[in-house]
Structures are given as C-alpha cells and as structure tokens.
Specification:
44% helix; Serine Threonine Protein Phosphatase 5, Tetratricopeptide repeat; alpha/beta; 17% strand; Spore Coat Polysaccharide Biosynthesis Protein SpsA, Chain A
C-alpha cells in the first residue's frame, strides 16, 4: 500500500507516531501534527499493544491516518522498523506519543535538508517538559537538552546520544542503505542508529526549540538496568570499530579524546553491570589514550567499592 499525503500524492514526509499506553498525552501529540506549517505528510501510527484506550481514541480521532496495531508488544525498535517498512516519504520523522512538536518543526528540518544535500539526519533544539506540559528547569535527565552543529556528528555521538528521538528526521535513503534499527536494544537503539548514519552522512541541527521532550514516571529511559546493558553493548561496538573511526580522517586529538571518553563510560557501565575487573580494563584503556583524564584514575580505584557506593559517585 502506497501512502498518500495531504496533497493526495506520495508524501514528502512519513511521520512515525509511536504509541504505548500514553492516552493522557495523545491529544497533545495529535494536535502537534495537525498544527504543522508543512502539510505534505502521511502519518503512520504504530500502537505497540496499548491497553489504556489509546487504540479506540485513535480510531475515533484520526481514522484517516494509517493505524497499525500490534497485538504483541514489539518494543520501541521493532515497532519503528515496521513503520520504516511502511513509509513512502522521502523523509521519515519520528514522534513519540508523549512528546510535543512546535508548528514549524517539519518545515525547518526540510529547509535544512534542502540547503545541505550531504545531511542524512536532522534534529532540533528543544526543552524538557513535565506531565502537565510545564517547562522543567535544570537537567531532569541528568544532562542539558542536546545541541550540536551541522556537519560531522561522529565525535559527538561517540561520547553520548546527542539527539532526542522525537526531534529527529531522517532521509529514507539512510535506512535503505544502512538497514533498520537493531531491535535487540531496549532503549539505546536510536543512538546506535544515529551513529551508523553519522558514519556515512553529515548531520544537521535546527537551533530553534521545536521539540518538547516530556519527562514523566513512565519514561523508558528510567529503566536504568536495561539501559546500562544497552550502553555496554554499544560502547563495545565502538571499541571494535576503532580502526574504522581512525580511517575517517577526523582530528586525531579529538578522536583520541572521544575514544578515551567512550572507554571511561564503558568502564562505568561494566561496573554497574557487575563486571568490576572488565571495568578496570576499560578505564586503563581510557588512561592510555588520554593520561590527563584524572577522573578515569579515580573511577578505576572506585571499581573496588560496592556497586551501591560506586553508583553514588555518578
């Protein structure tokens, strides 16, 4: 089945609206899409087994959208892969049902794609909001809302996930060339996908605050034990690809520092995952790459502490 945009033709953008038991926030998400200044899109709603009335609300509220109901929970990345398979647009925009878009979000991203043909992925600036839509002060996730520059994002993504999923738009061609999200991840599969794209394409960044990430009690990112195992796996992949990153011609000092940071973070999650000896190996590798990283020496020593005591150091 070929999707149809609001102009009656094959759409420019395929919006993948992922839903799972967030009926309290669903209307905000629907209105975010309906209020976009750019209207040549299709909406593929991916409901991953909701049991809170989300399905019924969607059928009543937006029957013209493509509604895909999974009887069994596929997980975030299995669900997104189904959406990518169905998408017919040149670009794919990801939108979690508990977040909010500003009206110019799609328009601004498409302008950037138009101006930078080597860009394969674009994310936007934004803010953190609470369950009632109020702006949250400080760093509720433990970090500032991610900001980058337009250009190579490899060094930035080697350090951490620099993009909020609901802020991202991707050329469909990237998925065609590189494959889908890895469904084996619980919560870091988007970071893995962004890094794979950045290894082949440039990244774009809209400085306008166009995405509101909602922080609430049900956030998947609060399930830390599963996230730590995800992060260990992803950071080990980075280590295995060191020679590849060295072949990209990135500034050597900056690459060395980014890889040292990756080793240090690998040491941390290995310790949290109960692998103290392997954690010390990772910290030692970080120190060899950047002997001036004082924190890595301290973390190496801290691996001898019980996990709960180590965790308080984070």
């Amino acid at each position: 089945m070929v999707g149809v945009g609001n102009n009656g033709c094959v759409p420019k953008v395929s919006i993948l609206l992922t839903c799972y038991n967030h009926i309290a926030y669903l209307e905000d998400a629907i209105r975010s899409i309906e209020s976009q200044t750019f209207s040549d899109y299709e909406v593929i709603v991916l409901d991953d087994g909701s049991t809170d009335g989300t399905r019924e609300r969607l059928q009543e509220r937006v029957p013209s959208w493509r509604l895909v109901f999974h009887e069994q929970n596929l997980g975030t990345y299995g669900s997104l892969n189904r959406g990518v398979e169905l998408a017919t647009g040149e670009f794919v925009a990801i939108f979690n049902d508990d977040d909010v878009w500003e009206p110019r979000k799609l328009e601004a991203q498409l302008e950037l794609f138009e101006n930078f043909p080597r860009v394969g992925i674009v994310h936007t600036n934004g803010i953190f909001i609470g369950s009632k839509g109020e702006q949250l002060a400080g760093t509720p996730l433990g970090f500032d809302y991610p900001e980058t520059e337009t250009g190579s994002l490899v060094l930035r993504l080697l350090r951490s996930n620099a993009m909020i999923a609901s802020s991202v738009m991707v050329r469909k061609k990237c998925f065609d060339e590189l494959g889908m999200f890895d469904p084996a991840y619980f919560g870091s599969g988007d970071w893995d996908m962004w890094l794979r794209i950045a290894e082949k394409w440039e990244g774009g960044y809209c400085v306008e605050k166009l995405t509101r990430y909602r922080w609430h009690d049900e956030n998947a990112s609060k399930k830390l034990d599963r996230i730590w195992h995800d992060d260990e796996r992803l950071r080990e992949r980075v280590v295995a690809q060191t020679a590849f990153y060295e072949s990209l011609g990135l500034p050597s000092a900056e690459l060395r520092e980014a890889l040292a940071h990756n080793f240090a973070c690998l040491g941390t999650v290995r310790k949290l995952n109960g692998k103290a000896a392997l954690a010390r190996q990772a910290y030692a590798s970080s120190i060899r790459l950047c002997p001036q990283r004082v924190k890595s020496y301290l973390r190496w020593i801290a691996t001898f502490l019980p996990r709960d005591a180590f965790l308080k150091l984070k």
